[in-house]
Amino acid sequence: MSALLARPEARVVVVDVLRHVDLEPGPGAGPWIRAAVGTLALTGASTALVLGTQGALWYLFGAPILAGLRGFLRARQQSPLGHRVAMRIEPWGFVLDPEGTEEVLPWPRISSLRHNTVILSEQSTVDMFFVEVDGEAHRAVCPVSAPLAVLPVVLPGYVAAAKRPVALDLDGAMSIEGTQATFAELLGRARRMLESPDGTTQLGMPAAGYRGVASRTPGHETASILRGALVGHRRAVDEGPLAAMLAAMLGTRELLREVLTLCMSPSPLVAAVGKAAALRLGAAPMQPGAVDEVLPFLPEDEVRAIERFAQGEDGG
Q1: pTM value?
Q2: Boundary of a domain, candidates 156, 176, 209
Q3: CA 51, CA 236: separation in Å to the nearest integer?
Q4: Do 183 and 131 reside in the same domain of the chain?
Q5: Rounded to an integer, what distance in angstroms lies between the CA atom of residue 166 and that of residue 179?
Q6: pLDDT per position as a tens digit, 188-205
Q7: pLDDT tens, position by position, 270-287
Q8: pLDDT score of 60
Q9: Do β-strands 103-106 and 83-84 pair in parallel, antiparallel, or remain unpaired?
Q10: Are 247 and 179 contained in the same domain?
Q11: Which is it for strands 93-96 and 103-106: parallel, antiparallel or unpaired?
């Protein structure tokens, strides 16, 4: 059993500005070409002056050297090393080349994330991001945005949240690695809890009737028990997804606000389950957003199963 933490941890939530941020590949060889052309032109002009004065103005050769150095340093800043590629930032990671081959990078796959603010011209300043995966750096740019600039700082928290083990019960006795958890397994656990005497007792629900049929009527303490699992982390495992599914299946609408906090989790599974549970509890569609927003970070068949759950189906 996962022990209770000395102090409950706040649930990590991705800032809303990270919904569908498109980044362009950014400058390519252009800055280097301009630096080279400028250096050559200034060198030619200096050479003509020096020859015209029979070498008296030899020190003018220093001008193209200094100007060229500045030009190439500026080119290095505007077009540094790294594979230029369009990107899209989502609450669950990056998508490289979203309109082409599309490579999905959940937060745990990203080994390094860097950010620079780059001046391209007097009228243009951009944020440049460097995403390193498997030893290869990719870069792209977007308009300057202060919230986006903190991404390298918050990345470790996003990675830890996405990898956090998902609880398969409300005691933390059973869990599965966050990146390996599946909706079908969670749904099966939720159904078994609602159908077993031990599960309903754990949820503070009325005992089964004389025919042994478990009731899906919440007890006086049910909402409080589920709220404790939804708000923050009491253990090293995340009980939130299972609690959100149970809240939806029991119709405990008073937990809608707590369920909505899961919708911007760095984990695509946790977020999708939160969206589905919130929709099933009657949230306005714009509050949690569509379940299929998590595509392509979850397999399509899993997303469709979660959408069916949002519509009231419990069959998996």
Answers
A1: 0.81
A2: 156
A3: 77
A4: no
A5: 9
A6: 999 999 988 888 888 888
A7: 999 999 999 999 999 999
A8: 46
A9: unpaired
A10: yes
A11: antiparallel
